[in-house]
Amino acid sequence: MILNAEDITIQNIDHLGIVAGIIDAIGLVEIINELIGEEKGEKVSPGHVVKAMILNGLGFVSKPLYMFPQYFETIACEHLIGAGVKPEYLNDDKLGRIMDKLFIKGLDTIFFIIALKAAKKFGVSLSSSHLDSSSMHVHGQYNTSLPEVILESQKVENNQETEELAVKSPKEITITYGYSRDHRPDLKQFIIELICSGDGDIPIFLKLASGNQSDSS
Prior knowledge:
- Strand 2 (150-158) and strand 3 form a beta hairpin.
- It is globular and about 70 Å long.
- The protein is of the alpha+beta class.
- The N and C termini lie far apart (68 Å).
- The longest helix has 15 residues, at 107-121.
- Helix 2 packs across helix 3.
- It contains 7 helices and 5 strands; from the N terminus they run αααααααβββββ.
- It folds into 2 domains: 15-105, no CATH class; 126-209, no CATH class.
- It comes from Nostoc sphaeroides CCNUC1.
- It holds the Pfam family DUF4277.
- Residues 9-115 form the DUF4277 domain.
- This is IS1634 family transposase.
């Protein structure tokens, strides 16, 4: 068969093919979909959205969320993320809704479940581990906090019955002054608590904490 030049479409994959392959090997898309659920009729699942965010974050770019679809117009979107996933489906509204659901479910819980699955998949020993905290300073005032939000009309279908759930959001962290491990006591900060395996220093637990939280807790 002879192909003409106009019949050939070239799309970049670069290093993201390896990243997408590891994500698929872990089963991250399926884990996310099971944890936070899929909505009937949505064009792209929560798991595929998270996969897209990881690919974007490891794509060496830094752009606002409203430009997110433009990034995937330049790469093999369906090949990397999933069949039927188009760049326009990955808009900032969709990303925002998924991030809200991830926050409500608990990001530390989600990270832990995925980390254990990855450790089992790749044979990482968890016989020993190391816990450490790091402070991350930020610029700006950060003088506002999230309200006590009650998410209304969370509908779950079960045997053709619809139940409305009111879900109270987890408590947000406080970005404030505290003991600065990166030597910027003049700036507000938050804390990252991380547990890594003794085998290969693989992160197995991640939690964000307020900037003034003590290590002793």
